[in-house]
Design a protein that fits this description.
Length: 160
């Protein structure tokens, strides 16, 4: 009986320690994100999505994936004031043909482009460029993706 009590006491002690560690984990503060907006994804559009366009399709989302209108986004292609624009996101038709908030459609020409949200701190997406590509068909359109006719989707997500 003594041996059994000693054994049970040992297990009870270990269980108490494990529960204390578990409580620490439950009450640890959530780490603060490094930026207000992170780059969720950057991808080249397929030939059938693109259909010979040369755009950056930008979306800014909240934490739940819902688009946010009125967010300033800097699109830069060269150093200096003349090498960038800062439009605001708005409700537009998305790549699936649905009206959706939080979008900017920007036509690219030759060069490399970076994108970042200007509302707080943001990761930088890119550079992306239409300056490459081989002819990729979509049905009858034999140049749906081609040199200078490549498009990208860039999605930012707010971290708070």
């Amino acid at each position: 009986a003594r041996a059994l009590r000693a054994l049970l006491y040992g297990y009870q002690s270990r269980i108490s320690e494990a529960l204390a560690d578990y409580q620490i984990l439950l009450h640890s503060p959530t780490p603060t994100p490094d930026v207000d907006y992170r780059v969720k994804s950057v991808r080249q559009l397929t030939p059938c999505e693109n259909q010979s366009k040369h755009h950056i399709f930008i979306k800014v989302e909240d934490m739940n994936g819902q688009g946010i209108d009125g967010v300033p986004v800097k699109i830069q292609w060269a150093a200096g004031e003349d090498g960038s624009v800062i439009p605001n996101t708005e409700t537009k038709t998305d790549l699936k043909g649905q009206l959706d908030p939080g979008h900017i459609d920007f036509a690219m020409f030759k060069g490399s482009y970076t994108v970042q949200v200007m509302d707080g701190t943001s990761e930088v997406a890119g550079p992306v460029t239409p300056d490459y590509g081989t002819n990729e068909a979509c049905g009858e359109n034999t140049v749906a993706n081609s040199l200078y006719h490549i498009s990208f989707e860039v999605i930012f997500q707010r971290t708070f």
